[in-house]
């Protein structure tokens, strides 16, 4: 297909052309694979004498209804803003974005930098002054198609539910497997533990006690983790162990944001009884459900069955899902201790919530607030040096050598593609046949260049990222009373409590390795007193890419 680019030629320089490809989970079976899309664009670009290959960016298995989680797309935009791309080729508007607001915002931002987006299927250039109307129309159609596809999928899923057709996710639960014939069978090595859990609970044992027994016995969850009372409670509530399947416990209300909500009557539910082999007999299962419901009412336990589970995040503490344990990898949870009529909040490793299973130590929330307030104040006072630390951490150490290698590959690709075109236009059959070798080499080098481009593009948003961190820092409070209501998690991705003597906060991405002996920036000491005993906590930050 002929691409009618409107981008002005730059005398003495080829236009740097990139492409974007995406394969979504709702893809049609006739849609080309991601590798086919990449191969197509590599050849399309390197064979144009006026173009220079600038990379093929892509997202695999990501919906087009939002650009938030499309990291390949984000890398491409950052790379373009850094002045490395002149033209972006994309198969269609729906491949680029199905959200009208996202599409027009990105288009206008890039157009302001002189960067063209060319939509092949619609034969539209973003540099055409009249394209906004067409883009809006096509994007609205694509958005409507996404909603229509969602409705069709929902209809098919609802139909399967009504007819009792289902797939049991055995990789997410204990006790079952699929055999070679595709039938669900009981996996006895795990089923015997499930039966014992039901038996113990039916005879009066609590979920905490059962969790302790499972952990002491060395039996892990399906994900290889230790047990706690909530995990045991979920196992005992699972109707699949009595052979039933309850469809649509949760649902997606808006296919454009994909948020999963608990179903408290907003959608029809379907219960298919005796759908597969049962591990627990129905008398025992029903007895356990009755006991659990009575205890949930008595002790006010949040329960899906009692409609006391909602979709709002747990608001008990601002530190939820924030503090990591360096010993077992679990998150810290809140716990309230009562002493002399006074309630004191602590953060403690989830593994120690019911019984001491991890060597980690708990820490008072009040002292955490004080440490974080002092740390924020220190960073604000030393903002310029903090910026320098961020730059040195986020910048690629070998960026210059990578760029040099990209330039070398670009020259080789241009040379090979020129030889290919020259031979193809020679009229000599022998040279024309031999030219395919040049094309194959050029494509191979283009793929090698693409890997390096992705590496560079991943670091292109450093300036924007650091500016964002500094803006967040400026808005954070330095008063300990305001810490928990602030957006400190936007600056710090995690905290690690090594023990009562050492705590550190992570700026940037989550650290792949949680160190017990980190090299800290802005190291300082916090002193506090508990019952006439003075404690000292060393604290600081580390920066993670």
Explain how this protein is built.
This protein starts with 14 loop residues before the first strand and ends with a strand. It has 545 residues and is of the alpha/beta class. Helix 1 packs across helix 13 (429-458). It has four domains: 15-149, Rossmann fold; 164-299, Alpha-Beta Complex (Hect, E3 ligase catalytic domain fold); 323-391 and 465-544, no CATH class; 396-458. The chain contains 14 helices and 19 strands.
End-to-end span in angstroms? 41 Å
Largest sheet: 5 strands, mixed
Rg is 29 Å
Strand content: 15-25%
Number of helices: 14
> What is the general shape?
globular
Overall domain count? 4
Physical arrangement of strands within the biggest beta sheet? 2-1-3-4-5
Helix content: 40-55%
Structural class designation: alpha/beta
* Quaternary status: single chain
Provide mean pLDDT, rounded. 81
Please mark out the parts with pLDDT under 50 across 5 or more consecutive residues, or reply none. Answer: 26-30, 309-315
* Secondary structure: number of strands: 19
Feature tags:
five-stranded mixed β-sheet, 4 domains, 41% helix, alpha/beta, Rossmann fold, Hect, E3 ligase catalytic domain fold, single chain, 545 residues, 19 strands
Outline:
The protein has 14 helices and 19 strands.
